[in-house]
Amino acid sequence: MYPNRKTALRAAALLAAAVAVIGGCQRGVTTGERSPSTGPSSPGCPTTLARAKAAVQQAENTNARWNGPTSGPTAVSGKTVVYVAQTMTNPGVAGVTNGVAEATKVIGWNTRVIDGQGTPAGLQAALSEAVALRPSGIVIGGFDPDLTSRQVAQADAAHIPLIGWHAVEAPGPSRRPKLFSNITSKVQDVAKASADWIIARSDGDAGVVVFTDASIPFARSKSELITRELTTCSGVQLLAYENIPIPDAGSRTPQEVSSLLSRFSNTWTYSVAINDLYFADAAPALRAAGKQGDAAPFNIGAGDGDPSAFQRINSGQFQAATVPEPLTEQGWQIIDEFNRAFSAKPATGYTAPVHIATAANSHGTTTWDPAGYREAYRRIWGR
């Protein structure tokens, strides 16, 4: 537990506490009572607030041009790719499969999806099955390859290239674990954008709850970076850090939200989660407590921007924003990276620029699908 404070927490102290929480807490951690608000006309972090507002304005732009690869090897033929999913209940993991399926159809390959069911045993069995199929390539879809180290070694011994999606923190090739490439937005950019949105929208005065799944290194790192960025504004207070594994989110999130409401009431004004699905599960508890869908706590997902998240945002139902991954685009990139692997060419290491979606800029759409990539990859592949 954080000790109770009656004055505003200094950024350094909050950072130290946040890092300690991330290292060991398995439930929620409170920072105690919030300090008196400085008010929107007198924010406690004017320099940080100005920077955050400028960054958010740029990230909300929807007219950015394609800045990804425009050259590479033409399509090889006769390939099969197996996508091993962490769990198909994770909307981001499931969303990428749509892009993979779409791209493999264009390039002329076959694809298959195996659901790991969100457990170490399930993932090991799924990856074992994938290796036994002897496909041309395997996707590590949203889980830590260290959980399946034996199967990863088997794939390597069989000369089956592995490409990750959110498998490790950094984009691009990985030596340990051995991945031809890892497809993801830069976690630092996503974390910063979500935290900056809270700072900017609250005018530097917020009580925040963070939801994460600490069993996934990528997610754990993201939530740590979010808390660090929040501490750059002295008017923002971390109320609780909720570690809820994604496979358990449906059952645990409503209970945790009810507990948070009883502990913090109106002091809880903002939430950020490493995945949008937490807010789908939080909605019934918030609604039962008499909360309005378009009122506090204002919720932002730091990934992945699945259709249900956009629906909640567009209808003002317990989610105000998301930092979406371009899921379909990333599915196409996975296939392009495999084509480079099969052609003995290096990975691109491309990462999509960060974007923030709200009701104001989504224009009723249910996905972040930037323009230009389909045409670019078709030209590269000769399709």
From TrEMBL:
Family annotation (InterPro entries): Peripla_BP_I, SBP_2_dom
UniProtKB keywords: Signal
Signal sequence interval, chain numbering: 1-27
Subcellular location: Cell envelope
The organism's place on the tree of life at top rank: Bacteria
Keyword Nuclease tagged: no
Domain Periplasmic binding protein: 82-336
Pfam families per record: Peripla_BP_4
Main location group: other
Family classification: Belongs to the bacterial solute-binding protein 2 family.
Protein name according to UniProt: Substrate-binding domain-containing protein
Lineage, uppermost ranks: Bacteria, Bacillati, Actinomycetota, Actinomycetes, Kitasatosporales
